[in-house]
Amino acid sequence: MKALDRVFGWLLALGGIGHGLGSYKAYGNQPMALIWALSASFAVFLLAAINLLRTERAGDRTLAWISFAGCAVWIGFVLWFGALIGNIFDFRPLINLILTLVLTFFSLRSALRPAPG
Hints:
The protein is mostly helical. It has one domain (2-112). It has helices spanning 2-27, 31-56, 61-85, 91-112. It is elongated, with a radius of gyration of 15 Å. The two termini are 21 Å apart.
């Protein structure tokens, strides 16, 4: 399960790269929109990093709760974005939703796991 957890963390990080590249392509001539779109890419990278760190620190329940909270917030943003574009089943929100739901599950599982020792 740990390997699968890591895979989803890395997939989320790759999604951040894709978001950054897509944002630059879509908003390259609109600096105000681009900076906000790139800030979302940065948020995805941070969330991926927190999740990857969580996979290495199995006993850190505080980190697991932080990861869970971040995933829950990101799910809200993903659903909001899907609603704004009029299709939550569009590939962009759908892939983010799937990845983040899996990471939310792993985060909650880590947070609720009994402390080692």
